[in-house]
Amino acid sequence: MMSLPPQPLSPLDGRYRAAVESLGEHLSEAGLNRARVQVEVEWLIAQTDRSFFGTQPLDDAQKAALRKVVADFGQADIDELATLEATTRHDVKAVEYYVRRRLEGLGLDAIAELTHFAATSEDINNLSYAITVRDAVQQVWLPKLRGVIETIAALAREHRDAAMLSRTHGQPATPSTMGKELAVFAHRLRRIERQIEATEYLGKFSGATGTFSAHVVAAPDVSWPTVSREFVESLGLTWNPLTTQIESHDWQAELYGKVSHANRVLHNLATDIWTYISLGYFRQIPAAGATGSSTMPHKVNPIRFENAEANLELSSAVLDSLAATLVTSRLQRDLTDSSAQRNIGVGFGHSLLALDNIQRGLGEIDLDEALLLDDLDHNWEVLGEAIQTVIRAEVVAGRSTISDPYALLKELTRGKRVGAADLAAFVSSLEIGDEAKARLLALTPATYVGIADDLVDALD
């Protein structure tokens, strides 16, 4: 058997690449290296702005030229870094040599020794990861989540008054509306979205063990915590003043926990929509030319929601593992976080793929309101709750002497099918006030939905 040409091992880089490639701009090795270059460049500019060791501040043209190195970072730079790393066997050292080459090309050799000055590799890495994760979340993942939430919210508004039979424990229960049930998911996801939006992306810049030791020896009169804080904040990050060699990654654990929470709510949505499709509540809109089954030509399978389920489970497995792993580092530093963090993109990639499937799936279904009404009409026994509750109110008001209304309705309805005529006859015979009796006789399963319609307005 002949060997295949090189193939992507992960489906995120193969079959599903088109759906997730926007994350590669940030959470790939190339994205990380570009961020590392950015941090090294900005550290050079920050040092010269303070005239460290007799240097002069760079002029605007020199700063622009250095920042252009980051802005123009492309395939040639990716390849150059790979070549450098093959020699250094150290990814951050390769970035340092890369930046030094650029300084030489720009005639800025005089400040070359300020490249990576007093910085441990983790000073560069933690800031780079914070930048790339922040940008991936804010520019790619959150907008996709918001799109799904708004799609759910739009469907909730559209079907706000579409009465349907509820199924608590999978059994017929007090009716609701499809709109209200969808609104629950939009509301849950919006709350998590706000929490993720408020994430603090922390960074440290304090040397080999977080003590500024090399900094103080080189320049004892400099307020290094102030320099560190201002530098970290200049990158749009929150300064962490107290760390070991590494930034403690607590913000990452918090973020990944919240994204995993969102995944699980989305998983709940996917399984519910799948079930509604199975019940016939939603019809699937066939795509022209698509095949549902290789042998059963009639089938339109709910594959969008099934694919979403699988990818949400994979995403949460990775993100939960990262959250658990990253908060522990032996003594002042070990390297477990290095390999672990290279899988951040995998966790977000599976989640993004699931969001794409859910959004597409929600656009391929149509509510069968006639079936919903027919289902309600076959389950009049769900009005038992309403009847026994009204009787209890009438007893309290002194208009009835019925004892144990709950037991009375339990005897009539539990485990049985009761029709409209049966319930009407039962209500007519009750010892309750005329107004209450009229209210119950007018009630149907389709109208027994409380204020479900109005509750959808909570989304606004």
TrEMBL record:
<feature type="domain" description="Adenylosuccinate lyase PurB C-terminal">
    <location>
        <begin position="329"/>
        <end position="449"/>
    </location>
</feature>
<dbReference type="InterPro" id="IPR022761">
    <property type="entry name" value="Fumarate_lyase_N"/>
</dbReference>
<dbReference type="InterPro" id="IPR000362">
    <property type="entry name" value="Fumarate_lyase_fam"/>
</dbReference>
<keyword id="KW-0456">Lyase</keyword>
<dbReference type="InterPro" id="IPR047136">
    <property type="entry name" value="PurB_bact"/>
</dbReference>
<dbReference type="InterPro" id="IPR020557">
    <property type="entry name" value="Fumarate_lyase_CS"/>
</dbReference>
<comment type="pathway">
    <text>Purine metabolism; AMP biosynthesis via de novo pathway; AMP from IMP: step 2/2.</text>
</comment>
<dbReference type="InterPro" id="IPR024083">
    <property type="entry name" value="Fumarase/histidase_N"/>
</dbReference>
<protein>
    <submittedName>
        <fullName>Adenylosuccinate lyase</fullName>
        <ecNumber>4.3.2.2</ecNumber>
    </submittedName>
</protein>
<dbReference type="InterPro" id="IPR013539">
    <property type="entry name" value="PurB_C"/>
</dbReference>
<comment type="pathway">
    <text>Purine metabolism; IMP biosynthesis via de novo pathway; 5-amino-1-(5-phospho-D-ribosyl)imidazole-4-carboxamide from 5-amino-1-(5-phospho-D-ribosyl)imidazole-4-carboxylate: step 2/2.</text>
</comment>
<feature type="domain" description="Fumarate lyase N-terminal">
    <location>
        <begin position="20"/>
        <end position="308"/>
    </location>
</feature>
<dbReference type="InterPro" id="IPR008948">
    <property type="entry name" value="L-Aspartase-like"/>
</dbReference>
<dbReference type="Pfam" id="PF00206">
    <property type="entry name" value="Lyase_1"/>
</dbReference>
<dbReference type="Pfam" id="PF08328">
    <property type="entry name" value="ASL_C"/>
</dbReference>
<keyword id="KW-0658">Purine biosynthesis</keyword>
<comment type="function">
    <text>Catalyzes two reactions in de novo purine nucleotide biosynthesis. Catalyzes the breakdown of 5-aminoimidazole- (N-succinylocarboxamide) ribotide (SAICAR or 2-[5-amino-1-(5-phospho-beta-D-ribosyl)imidazole-4-carboxamido]succinate) to 5-aminoimidazole-4-carboxamide ribotide (AICAR or 5-amino-1-(5-phospho-beta-D-ribosyl)imidazole-4-carboxamide) and fumarate, and of adenylosuccinate (ADS or N(6)-(1,2-dicarboxyethyl)-AMP) to adenosine monophosphate (AMP) and fumarate.</text>
</comment>
<dbReference type="GO" id="GO:0004018">
    <property type="term" value="F:N6-(1,2-dicarboxyethyl)AMP AMP-lyase (fumarate-forming) activity"/>
</dbReference>
<dbReference type="GO" id="GO:0006188">
    <property type="term" value="P:IMP biosynthetic process"/>
</dbReference>
